[in-house]
């Protein structure tokens, strides 16, 4: 028994060590690819955004320890020892530049808050390909311009969408209303116009849409009124209508006036005994008021 134990223990120890190393190696290889994508995602963010206030000075990519990015300012991971980004919150850091498209590498990210910076340009029109699993997106208080991309409606997990205080123009795409998990949407203080979409599974209050001079429809006043966008056709319509009515009134007036003149003239002519002249005159007048009408 003792002999056997002496003989097998070193062998057993060696093989278990080997297995441990093998398992560790396999796990590392299988996870490192995904983890490296998230590291590259954050690195690309620092490359596409300017950081004049050096707010991201804790973002040190030289430490390659698993979980090191989880200590970066504004980064939450799913697990503190695994390079897998859950949320990015970079609020009021003086960041500039355009929406970081490299965020597509953070494929497990569910929350993105870039509010209160100076980020400009358009919201990417393939945003669902970049950050398609977000439940919360906050781009408020930046300098985003252009239209709200309809592709946001393909970010089907969105609960919260904040786009207020930017320079967005055009309509709110009606497809956004089909986001059935959406609870909060704010687009106040932009330059949006057109009808507010119907939201399938939530009631959004009017103050979420305030300070967009061209927006209309529930819960704002109905779109039938003279909104900025529709004012020009109405003015043209009124002008055309006015001119038509004026012309009609004028024509009818002329009709009666000329008929009276003709009658009077006929009476005078009859009195003056000028037959031929009177017939010619009536004909000419008839032709004239036909043209007038
Ligand atoms: C690298 O990151 C790990 C995890 O955050 C930390 O424990 C370690 O101290 C860091 N190493 C250096 C050299 O900063
Ligand atoms: C960035 O730095 C500028 C100049 O020092 C300062 O005025 C501004 O408040 C800072 N912004 C933020 C968000 O820290
Ligand atoms: C999104 O579109 C931009 C160009 O507008 C492109 O460079 C980028 O690769 C696209 N991203 C994805 C994830 O499709
Ligand atoms: C959603 O994605 C599909 C497939 O990429 C695309 O065809 C469709 O136009 C997108 N929807 C919107 C509203 O952009
Ligand atoms: C709408 O919201 C209710 C709860 O408010 C939820 O139970 C339901 O699943 C939602 N519908 C859809 C289509 O997501």
From TrEMBL:
Keywords tagged on the record: Leucine-rich repeat, Membrane, Repeat, Signal, Transmembrane, Transmembrane helix
Pfam families documented for this protein: LRR_1, LRR_8, LRRNT_2
Top-level taxon of origin: Eukaryota
Transmembrane segments: 234-258
InterPro entries: Leu-rich_rpt (IPR001611), LRR_dom_sf (IPR032675), LRR_N_plant-typ (IPR013210), PRK1-6/SRF4-like (IPR046959)
Every Leucine-rich repeat-containing N-terminal plant-type domain range: 36-78
Record's signal peptide: 1-34
Protein name from the UniProt record: Leucine-rich repeat-containing N-terminal plant-type domain-containing protein
Organism annotation: Penstemon davidsonii
């Amino acid at each position: 028994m003792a002999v056997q134990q002496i003989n097998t223990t070193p062998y057993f120890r060696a093989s278990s060590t080997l297995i441990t190393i093998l398992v560790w190696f396999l796990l590392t290889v299988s996870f490192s690819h995904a983890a490296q994508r998230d590291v590259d995602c954050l690195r690309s963010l620092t490359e596409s955004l300017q950081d004049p206030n050096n707010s991201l000075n804790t973002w040190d990519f030289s430490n390659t320890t698993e979980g090191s990015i989880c200590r970066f300012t504004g980064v939450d991971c799913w697990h503190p020892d695994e390079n897998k980004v859950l949320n990015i919150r970079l609020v009021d850091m003086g960041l500039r530049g355009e929406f970081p498209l490299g965020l597509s590498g953070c494929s497990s990210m569910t929350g993105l808050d870039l509010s209160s910076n100076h980020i400009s340009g358009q919201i990417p029109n393939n945003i669902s390909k970049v950050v398609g699993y977000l439940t919360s997106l906050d781009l408020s208080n930046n300098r985003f311009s252009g239209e709200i991309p309809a592709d946001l409606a393909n970010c089907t997990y969105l609960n919260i969408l904040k786009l207020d205080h930017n320079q967005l123009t055009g309509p709110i795409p009606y497809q956004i209303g089909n986001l059935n998990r959406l609870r909060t949407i704010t687009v106040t203080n932009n330059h949006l116009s057109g009808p507010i979409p119907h939201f399938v599974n939530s009631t959004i209050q009017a103050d979420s849409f305030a300070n967009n001079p061209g927006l209309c429809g529930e819960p704002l006043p109905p779109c039938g009124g003279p909104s900025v966008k529709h004012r020009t056709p109405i003015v043209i319509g009124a002008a055309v209508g006015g001119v038509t009515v004026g012309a009609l009134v004028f024509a009818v007036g002329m009709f009666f006036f000329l008929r009276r003149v003709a009658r009077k003239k006929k009476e005078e002519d009859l009195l003056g005994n000028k037959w031929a002249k009177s017939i010619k005159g009536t004909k000419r007048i008839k032709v004239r008021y036909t043209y007038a009408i």
